[in-house]
Amino acid sequence: MTKIMNDLQDRILSRIDYSRESDDAEILSLIDTEIIAASRQGETSLSQMAKMRRDLFHSIRRLDVLQDLIETEGITEVMINGVNRIFVEKDGEVFPVRDSFSSPEKLDDVIQQVVSDCNRIVNESSPIVDCRLQDGSRVNVVLPPVALDGPVVTIRRFPKEPVRMEDLIANESVSEDAAAFLGRLVAAGYNIFISGGTGSGKTTFLNALSEYIPKSERIITIEDNAELQIRHIPNLVRLEARNANTEGVGEIPIRELIRTSLRMRPDRIIVGEVRGAEALDMLQAMNTGHDGSMSTGHANSARDMLARLETMVLMGMELPVPAIRSQIAHGIDILVHLGRLRDRSRKLLEISEILGMDGDGIETRVICRFLEEGEEDGRIQGRWIFENGLEHTAKLAMAGILDGPWQ
Q: Tens digit of pLDDT for each residue in 126-148?
């Protein structure tokens, strides 16, 4: 079957008029003609012909075997480890798929198509790139010689419709009380930082929290690759960082976008994720009157996130550690930590309030945390408990929000 498919593809490609742009209908017509001709020379079922038609169209016009994977509902991650090793994550489980690319050249063609659609470049001299698909899926590509066993492509898929807070509650990722508490804090303009490990759902949770932002505000989102799906804000500005071109010029990093956004009259600034020196600019934005700003970062716990923020600030500027901690303590109001547990479920693990400076350190207090109570049918059981009330309630009072689980 592989030889038949390769022969069909070669014949179809030879009949395409490259002097002009052919539309999808014309390509499908050429495919149908060749498949019908091939079917007359041997026994081919209708189901086989339909599959051949789809596979040929995906190979010529779309992303080859990758197209079916990114269109399959429920697949949250696609991992390509070279031509013949493809894995997917579905319902929290990772397993291999039978599909493979016909050749290394075909995989390279698909990679270049994905990257060029985002105006990015990846090659041997610049073998690592982050970009996204048209549906917003996040793509990371690593090429040889960095990747020893062939090109590595990792695709994080997001649902077509944004995951809402009510969905997270239904999936037992957060309790109703904890969600209501965070919703009131967002509406009142508390600066919130979301931490968690890889795959813990930070971007999804940030999206869900954004539902509580008042529609009347002007919001600016800043991301390395645009992933946020904020749809209810009319006055929304979306900014995306840009890599340098082949000549090494034209780079626009997140740091520059944050500084530029301060001149765009934002009510709130949302930075998709901080990984380096841009942490300082994010903290300065939070400390200059942009109440309700939010961001995310990788860390194993809320306390670890504070230490990582210190390190990231030092990557961009040599400052005394007490000065950095003061920026963090006065810029961020609430830390939300998420985790992916051993049963592969994603849960809110902790909500902490930053109380301020305690000598040379940052004083925090846990408000709400997830208490594990055992397992049932392989699923972790537990509940969210409020251990302390919110100490800094001035923003709630100014917003006219006077009741809630923090009292």
A: 899 888 888 878 899 999 999 99
pLDDT tens by residue, 161-193: 888 999 999 999 999 999 999 999 999 999 999
**CATH code for the domain of 307:** 3.40.50.300
Whole-angstrom distance between the N-terminal and C-terminal Cα of the chain?
68
Work out how many domains the chain is built from and give that number. Answer: 3
Nearest to 353 by CA among 407, 404, 302, 304: 302
Q: 237 and 218 in contact (C-beta within 8 Å)?
A: yes
pTM of the complete model? 0.80
Residue 243: partners with Cβ closer than 8 Å, 6 or more residues away:
120, 121, 129, 251
User: How far is residue 143 CA from its own chain's centroid?
Assistant: 21
What strand order describes the sheet that includes 93-96?
93-96, 86-90, 75-81, 152-156, 138-142, 128-132
Domain coverage including residue 17 = 1-61
Domain endpoint, select from 135, 157, 179: 157
* Any domain includes 407: no
Tell me the CB-side half-sphere exposure of residue 14, using CA atoms within 13 A.
7
Q: What one-letter code names the amino acid at 44?
A: T
Q: Do residues 260 and 187 share a domain?
A: yes
Final residue before a domain boundary, out of 17, 43, 61: 61
Is residue 230 a contact partner of residue 236, using CB atoms and an 8 Å limit?
A: yes
Q: Are 341 and 307 in contact (CB under 8 A)?
A: no
Q: Is 403 a member of any domain? A: no
Query: Do residues 245 and 121 make contact, with C-beta atoms less than 8 angstroms apart?
Result: yes
Report if residue 214 sits inside a domain: yes
361: number of CA atoms within 13 Å, CB side?
5
